[in-house]
Design goal:
heterodimer; A: about 250 residues; 8-stranded mixed β-sheet; 11 strands; globular; B: about 425 residues; alpha+beta; 5-stranded antiparallel β-sheet; 13 helices; about 30% helix
Chain lengths: ~250, ~425
């Protein structure tokens, strides 16, 4: 048996466990409560705690709704959903199609769709969902929600065990928000999504993370015609051309 | 030692069709099988349940609090059943604080009905309390007032046993409540209904059962308008048999919020039958992490109650090649069909447009937020030929299309098809049908 070396102490600890409580400016914050992996390794390393937070709201902003959200969320969420623990979808902008969703592993039994029409109903349904135990995740499109309504949802989510995502238009990035994690996405190339973290516990995130987020079936099809496809960008923290040196977006901390 | 609790109920008036003691008795059956109706009270013997329900004090407090909630007027506990009733009648509660004889001796004559019947004579003998009566010679008492008085006294003091006929829970639950005032708003019925539902959950607990539906009926005031009906009712259904009163109340609140009363209401009834055995959840030794939230089934029922059942949906898939025929939606409260469905092996989008969107053309290439570049395809879908009758009409189920996956940097990956049968139409044959979102 090898003798384990004594842990090196950099500074004497005045109070036991103090080091865990103190956050230093250059570290990534730790998530409060559980996280669930996002399915993208490069994204997980940038998220506090290493995944989507389970006791908090995550805002996902994108320029155009229904363009890329499933490609970002489903690789992580599909594994969590079961018929007994469904994924609740509130106020979807289009009709979700299970021909494609089940390729990610989200079968039709695992998803419940709430077609709330008015913004008030959507908010109510989302709030009820956040108060419920036993959902895999809550995904809600709330384009018209105001800052105080999101604060209320965040208060409900702090007792929720499932990750909750609010999908919102990009124009709201300059509004303040109570959500501890705000993520902005845009389409990269054909194969990729570009993700920028607007707000997180930890240092400001600069640049864009490129994720290989091709729908599952297309991966097979395209690999067959790979001769014609453009060379894949390995997305280990690669920064897209044109995004280098770009001024960091204002972090709208609430 | 026996442990009796007496729950005193306000004496019933002649007009009441249902005995108010009965629902209270059924509710009490969840704590012990030894429940009886005695005089104007419900008595329950708890010595065998004392170690359950969190211990003696917790059990006693729970019975007391819930009984008062349900309209019981006084509660007392003592080592004998009639003694407990006597204490309750005089506003005393605890028969265990001192020896029972001491406590009972101080009570006035009205505490025991058999003694109260002879109160006139006893008062003239100088007896004001039960203790005074007990000090009189037994032989003389027996000769003067008959044996019933002595039996009642001995029963209360625990000197002779009292035989009770135990209550059992019936097959059908029926309870009524006369409202203290006239109620004109449907929401306000909830308060009265809560009391009845509390009794119902007791009835269910005694039977170790749950229900899938119950009926709330209300009777309109006799001075109602000419065209108002005599009564109205709503039936609440749940997906799973349950006896959780909070869930019933939430569903009822949603329904009542949408109900309009035709006239003021003065009486409500709750009716339930077909109780189903419920699997009991055993309490965990380890403290489990629960947040007191509701379950998924309850959430779906609540959302359906507020938004309408056609707004909370689950998808059902059918094996078909035509995307618009693959997927149908059904209320999430309905059970799902079993078995998986095989779908065609071709790229499938995650969003489907309900109505395909016709795309403009620019130099023979379709446009959607800019020109589209082809990623893969075509995948031919040719189906629905058996539906000949509708073939001529616009919403034909005959489909002959070539599907392509296309891309542009603004709209992302799109699912676009080209109609093969263009016919007379000179417009573009390209349609947007889905998005790989």
């Amino acid at each position: 048996m090898q003798a384990t070396p004594l842990p090196q102490r950099t500074a004497p600890e005045a109070v036991p466990g103090m080091a865990a409580q103190v956050w230093r400016g250059n570290q990534l914050g730790s998530a409060q409560g559980r996280v669930c992996p996002s399915g993208f390794k490069t994204l997980d390393t940038e998220l506090p705690g290493g995944g989507w937070p389970c006791c908090a709201i995550t805002e996902v902003l994108q320029p155009q709704c229904s363009a890329a959200e499933w490609r970002l969320l489903l690789p992580g969420l599909a594994a969590l959903a079961t018929p007994q623990r469904p994924l609740l979808v509130v106020g979807a902008p289009q009709q979700p199609y299970f021909g494609g969703l089940r390729l990610y592993g989200a079968s039709e039994q695992c998803v419940v769709l709430v077609c709330a029409q008015t913004p008030a109903q959507q908010l109510w349904a989302t709030e009820q969902a956040l108060k419920t135990e036993g959902l895999a995740a809550v995904v809600a499109w709330l384009p018209h929600a105001r800052a105080e309504q999101i604060r209320r949802l965040q208060a409900c989510a702090s007792r929720c065990l499932a990750p909750a995502f609010l999908l919102r238009p990009q124009a709201t990035q300059f509004e303040s928000s109570a959500a501890p994690l705000r993520v902005q996405i845009r389409l990269g190339g054909m194969h990729t999504l570009a993700v920028h973290i607007l707000k997180r516990r930890g240092p400001m995130h600069e640049g864009w993370i490129t994720l290989n987020a091709l729908p599952p079936h297309l991966v097979d099809v395209l690999s067959r015609q790979s001769a014609h496809a453009e060379p894949e960008q390995e997305g280990a923290g690669a920064v897209l051309d044109g995004a280098v040196g770009r001024p960091a977006l204002a972090v709208a901390s609430a | 030692m026996q442990y009796w609790m007496a729950l005193l109920v306000a004496p019933r008036s002649q007009s009441q069709a249902l005995d108010a003691r009965l629902p209270l008795g059924w509710w009490a059956l969840q704590f012990t099988p030894r429940v009886a109706l005695y005089d104007d009270a419900v008595v329950l013997e708890l010595s065998t349940s004392q170690r359950l329900f969190g211990g003696e004090a917790a059990l006693r407090e729970r019975v007391r609090k819930e009984a008062l909630d349900m309209g019981c007027t006084a509660v007392a506990w003592a080592p004998t059943s009639t003694g407990a009733v006597a204490l309750a009648r005089c506003g005393e509660t605890d028969g265990f604080a001192a020896p029972l004889a001491h406590t009972l001796d101080r009570l006035p004559l009205i505490a025991l009905p058999e003694v109260a019947a002879e109160a006139h004579t006893l008062l003239r003998l100088g007896c004001k309390t039960l203790g005074d009566v007990r000090r009189l010679p037994r032989g003389g008492l027996s000769r003067r007032f008959g044996k019933r008085l002595l039996q009642a006294l001995d029963g209360a003091y625990g000197l002779r046993p009292h035989v009770h006929e135990w209550l059992s829970a019936p097959e059908v639950f029926d309870a009524r409540l006369e409202l203290p005032g006239h109620i004109e708003l449907a929401d306000a019925l909830l308060f009265g209904a809560r009391r009845l539902l509390l009794q119902m959950s007791g009835w269910l607990a005694a039977r170790h059962a749950g229900v899938r539906s119950f009926r709330l009926r209300w009777k309109y005031d006799s001075h109602r308008g000419r065209n108002a009906p005599d009564h109205d009712e709503i039936t609440i259904h749940t997906a799973e048999a349950t006896r959780q009163i909070d869930h019933f109340l939430r569903l009822l609140a949603e329904r009542l919020a949408k109900t309009r009363l035709a006239a003021p209401v003065d009486e409500i009834f709750v009716h339930a039958q077909n109780a189903e055995p419920l699997e009991e959840m055993s309490a965990s030794l380890l403290q489990e992490k629960t947040h007191g939230g509701e379950s998924v089934t309850q959430l779906i029922e609540r959302l359906s109650a507020r938004l309408g059942p056609d707004k909370v949906l689950r998808a059902v898939l059918r094996p078909d090649y035509r995307p618009e025929w693959v997927q149908a939606w059904q209320p999430a409260t309905q059970p799902l069909p079993r078995g998986g469905t095989a779908l065609p092996d071709m790229p499938q989008p995650t969003w489907l447009l309900t109505q395909p969107l016709r795309l403009a053309l620019k130099s023979e290439r379709p446009l959607y937020q800019g020109p589209l570049a082809q990623v893969c395809g075509p995948h031919r879908v040719e189906a629905g030929w058996w539906d000949r009758t509708a073939a001529a009409s616009a919403d034909s189920s005959l489909v002959r299309r070539d599907y392509y996956v296309m891309f542009n940097e603004h709209a992302g990956l799109l699912w676009v098809y080209r109609e093969l049968d263009v016919g007379e139409d000179r417009g573009s044959p390209w349609y947007l049908h889905g998005v790989f979102g």
